[in-house]
Amino acid sequence: MKSKVFFLFLFIVVGSSFEVSANPTPQKVIVAGKVLNYNSEIPLTLILNRVGVSREEADIKIDKDGNFHAVFETYIPVDAWVTYKTNFLIQLNPSDSLYVIFDGSFNNRPEILSSIQFQGNDAPTNHFIAKFQQMYYSNEIYYDWDKKNKAVKEYEPDDFIKYNDSILHRAKIIYEEFIKAYSPNEKNKK
Fold it and tell me: What's the pTM?
C-alpha cells in the first residue's frame, strides 16, 4: 500500500500522455546525460517499466565524471526510473534521444528534480513530468508515512475508503496547482 495510490495516479497522468501506437519493428531509444557531483560508489540505474512485462534494467554505461549512456529498443512508449540515491520518472518514446542532467549531491527527490535539465526529443514533456513529481514528492500525501501506515493498520474499511478518497482529492489539487504554475500545453497536461 506504501505507494500504490501514487503509482496509480502517476500511471494515469503519465500513461494518458502516451499516444500508444505500436511500431511494427522495435525502435532504438537513447538516454544519455551527466550526473553532476557524481560519486562512483553510488550506482546509477535505468529501470524500464514495459507494459505487460516485468521491470527491466537497461544496460547503462557511466564514466568517472558522471557521463552516462544507455541504449535499448521498444515498440511503444515506456516510462523509466532513473535511480541515483533516489529515483525519478522519465518518459521515452520509440526512436527518442533524451539527454538528462541532474545534481547528484542531493539526497531526495524534490531537490534532484529541482536541478534536472532535459534536452532532445520530448524534453518539454519530461520537464513537465519532473515539475509534477517535484510538487508531488514535496507534499505530505507522499511523505507522511506515519499517516499512511496508520490508515492501513487501523482504519475500518469505510474510513480507509474515505482516507483514499482524500488522497485522490489532494492529488487532484496538486495537479491543478501544477497546471496553474506551469501552463503546460494539452499534450503535457496529460
Answer: 0.81
